[in-house]
Write a structure and sequence with these properties.
single chain; 167 residues; 3 helices; 4-stranded antiparallel sheet; OB fold (Dihydrolipoamide Acetyltransferase, E2P); 2 domains; alpha+beta
Length: 167
């Protein structure tokens, strides 16, 4: 790895919520640990602080309300949202990198909401260290939700798409 690749990797890691990262490539080995998202509670227990993005499932926040959540949402509504998501299959990121919905900025996205996909179809690209990796679906069904913004950093095993399975 050269200096530029290492600095780009460090930037990706610092932009993510990872507390530990390791990579080994031949003789080259890099290990990074940070306590950026770890805090100690008064009783000495360690916990992880993860910011919740606006509009994410969970308690209504002012940012979520701006995006269209009803301010007087009942307690049953968030539970219903969680149940709805459990019916869907997930397509997850197999690596840390940057998520792209299309092969290039001037091309249409690989998949759109409502589109039916088959196992093996390319659904997005995850760029990691200047390598553009096409991510293929391991399931068939209809895309119901895209959970990541274009050009956003993604983590390993982060859910990218929700898919309604073939009936």
């Amino acid at each position: 790895m050269n200096y530029k690749e290492i600095t780009e990797l460090l930037k990706l890691i610092s932009d993510s919520h990872l507390s530990e990262f390791r990579i080994k490539d031949g003789d080259f080995e890099l290990s990074i640990k940070t306590d950026k998202y770890h805090q100690k509670s008064p009783d000495g227990q360690q916990y992880v602080q993860v910011p919740i993005p606006a509009g994410a499932a969970g308690p209504a926040t002012p940012a979520a309300s701006v995006e269209g959540s009803a301010p007087a949402e009942s307690a049953a509504a968030p539970a219903a949202k969680e149940e709805d998501q459990k019916e869907y299959l997930e397509i997850k990121s197999p690596m840390v990198g940057t998520f792209y919905r299309a092969p290039s900025p001037d091309k249409p996205p690989f998949v759109k909401i409502g589109e039916v996909i088959d196992k093996g179809d390319v659904v997005c690209i995850v760029e990691a260290m200047k390598l553009f990796n096409e991510i293929e679906s391991e399931i068939s069904g209809k895309i119901v939700k895209v959970l990541v913004d274009d050009a956003a950093p993604v983590e390993y095993d982060q859910t990218l798409f929700l898919v309604e399975p073939d009936a």
